[in-house]
Amino acid sequence: MSRSKYSVILLIALLTACSQPQQLKTVAQVETPDSAFNLDLSYQTFTLDNGLEVIVHEDHSDPIVAVATIVHVGSNREKAGRTGFAHFFEHMSFNNSENVPMGANRKMIPELGGTRNGGTWSDGTMYYEVVPKDAFEKLMWIDSDRFGYMINTVKQGTLEREKQVVKNEKRQRVDNRPYGHTSHVIKKALFPTSHPYNWTVIGDLEDLQNATLADVREFYDQYYTPGNATLVIAGDIEFEAAKASVEKWFGEIPAGQAVDPMPAMPVSLENSQRLYHEDNFAQLPELRLTFPTVEQYHPDAYALDALGEVLARGQQSPLFSRLVKGSQLAAEVSAYNRSEELAGTFTVRVRGHEGVDLDQAYQELQQALMDFEAKGVRATDLQKIKARQETDFYNGISSVLNKAFQLGIYNEYAGDPEFYKQDIANIKAVTADDVMRVYHQYIKNKPAIMTSFVPKGHPELALIDSKKADVVEENIVAGQEPEFTEEDADDFPRTATKHDRSEPPIGELPALISPAIWEAKTDQGISVAGIVHDEVPLVNFTLRIQGGQMLDSAGKNGTANLVAQMLEEGTQDKTAAEFEDAIGLLGSGINVSAGTTAITISGNSLARNFGKTMDLVTEMLLQPRFDADDFERIKNNTLTDITAAYGNPNSIAQKVFFRKLYGTDHVAGQPSIGTLDSVNNIELDDIKEWYQQNLSTQLIQFNVVGAIDSSTALTALQSLDQNLPHTEIELTYRPAESPSTTPQLYFIDVPDAKQSVLIVGKQLPAGTDFKAIEIVNNRLGSGSSARLTQMLRITKGYTYGAYSYPIRSEFYPGAFVASTQVRSNVTLESLDILKDLIGHYADTFTEDDLAVTKNILSKGNTRRFETLGQLLNALNEVTRFDLGHDFLEQEQALLEGMTLSDAKDYINQYIDEQDMIYVVVGDGKTQLDRLKELGYGEPVVLDRDGQILDY
């Protein structure tokens, strides 16, 4: 997490000490190149005697409150030999505290109808929650106890459990995925061993294992002090009430020792270094060039941000033009600056097609940079960057949590919440000359760390003269992880306080109603629905064309996906680059994607630019370019994407699971992207034929939310309505053969996998009551307080997370799915737990479970319709599945009326473990033989496409 590119926030602030009279300062507007930000936001601040800086922003639009605590300690404060400790401590902080029961932080907040999490980056740690307003006081009790009263409760059992959880997170995010070790290799090479950025945030496994209780105490005492943090409260709360609550709950926390600020520590390289790694999971070669740059908020950081966009974003960027479109050596390129608190880096990344020699890619990269030098910076590129600024700005303040993040980050790292003004000014001030200057100063002919990550067994693809990188692969051995016992005794010393720190009561929650939905039909049959929401001057929309992959011809699965990609490649009157410029200059975003049952065009724009944005959508649909060269490039890139997925254990598991659940011939059993064989069969004429036969007003559902009314939306659709075909195209329900009615276990071998991916599930028949399943699934696998995560993560330490959920479709049977990724040497043990928890769920589901579920889901609705994205998702569900305008009231009636007997009936009907299949992707040589002990016979061994192997 660092200062985001071009996503800045308009914040109106006054920093005052708590002893001074509170004053309020507002700014009506800040000028931008083409328009004004018209907002009336305000916030107030005060500082407690112990040094905690507090910011309060009132937003009474939804009955929710967000709280963010930013602690100014990240991995840059760690010591060599104790790397990863800031992140590890974040995990420890969620376990116990003196006055809040053990585990309540993870369980209580969801059960109050809220969400909670934390995050650690190089320079800081953040804890955050969003709760219904009635839970605000209870949240302050929990948060303050975690911050100021947790250290006495830390015990060895909890320490050992969290070590396992964090190590599982590292395996999932780093060790068991393609290119996961790249950051580690670059940091070790670029930063000296004495530099705080020499190690990754998650750290080294050996360091994590060696962490002691004394380390935890030392870290807490040194950095978790009020003067080293900012607390932000945003939402439906009055300032005086918030201030009184903060003073009560946080005011008695001792000030502790002061934390000295760290000076900027930029680095330099005398010579380039070339390093390579044979990646066990990567199927494609990847080259990265990393240059040292400047710290955050440095004047050059803004021009470097712009340089990254100019070099690699868009059809006309030098890297895309040369490597993706020209030589077609790469499927993907990117360039970006990352300026952090102490230092910065500029990265150029090229992911080649299968078998590409990275020396060739490097030569083309150098030529692309020469092209850039010769042509310079297009004025249009800077105009697009600045046009996006306003849209990104409003998107960045669309939720109270985002507002809290931005307020806190500016205060803690720039020293002033009002730094938004300088941030905006710095972005606006970047010129083409600035971009060229920083290119010459930091990039051209400058030393870099050059990393080649190549598929295992293919070191010849790496840059010539590269040295083998020092990557330590974990050897996971059965029984090597220490056993631990969770200690829940409260025999720890308690801190004396003036205020009573017992649990406060819950407040009152106002009644909720469904958002007001309007619906209409155009003359030629386009269905239209919308929700007016004018808190920010933005519009979000989706144009859903029913059919998608369902309409692909036999043997040519993936056609709809290619059609969707081709629609973004320009029109008859505009090349792909010209079309991209037209969108960018509006500050809008248009994305086309294909799924099993639809092609969807998603858009986001400023309200004043909605009409022009829809003109481009109309042009895209009525006059697609369908250029032959673009088609060949996109087809090749798609084949590369399919190949890359063979190296991702989670992708393999998902693909094989649905093939076995629905059958290879069923549309739901085939990946919507297609297969290597099917995509190779598709020609440009197939794309044109699909477009001509399957596009009709009768299949279109247009949904829009934001600061426009129905007449504006309908006007924007007139040309599309008049000029698209309006023929009837029949889409029929497609039943699937049900799998065996006895459990079946499948296994796919990924040699040396550090984790096993487990997916369990079954089909759900037509007529399934999905809302009922969501209700009864809540205590099984919906979130951190549910059984799966509580057992597999909290009790056993086997995983980073485990979840279950229903999947809904209008054209074929749905599915119930449970999934997790576990340490490989506990694969069988984890399967046994899944089998037991799911198999005995109905028997163990109690009245208390039902009461907790009702509380979570009913109160959770307070957070359900806050942002445009949330409103659009709800509207899409309503129109896709014909839920009715009073869908929320219907859901509430079902929830409130559900009895324990009803819940058990739903569980037995829809979550019957004996109807489920099990798919495991992991290391065959260590895990396969053990799996027969699950009791479901010999595992059926499959290849990565789901075909049976002789093993």
From TrEMBL:
Sequence segments annotated as region (Disordered): 485-506
Family: Belongs to the peptidase M16 family.
Name this polypeptide is given: Peptidase M16
One example of a Gene Ontology biological process annotation: proteolysis
Domain Peptidase M16 C-terminal: 211-387, 681-857
Keyword field: Hydrolase, Metalloprotease, Protease, Zinc
Top-level taxon in the UniProt lineage: Bacteria
PANTHER family attached to this UniProt entry: NARDILYSIN, NON-CATALYTIC MEMBER OF PEPTIDASE SUBFAMILY M16B-RELATED
GO molecular function annotations of the record: metal ion binding; metallopeptidase activity
Family matches, as SUPFAM superfamilies: LuxS/MPP-like metallohydrolase (SSF63411)
Pfam family, one: Peptidase_M16
Ranges of residues in domain Peptidase M16 N-terminal: 54-178, 537-662
InterPro entries: Metalloenz_LuxS/M16, Pept_M16_N, Peptidase_M16, Peptidase_M16_C
Keyword check for Transport: no
Ranges annotated as biased composition (Basic and acidic residues): 491-503
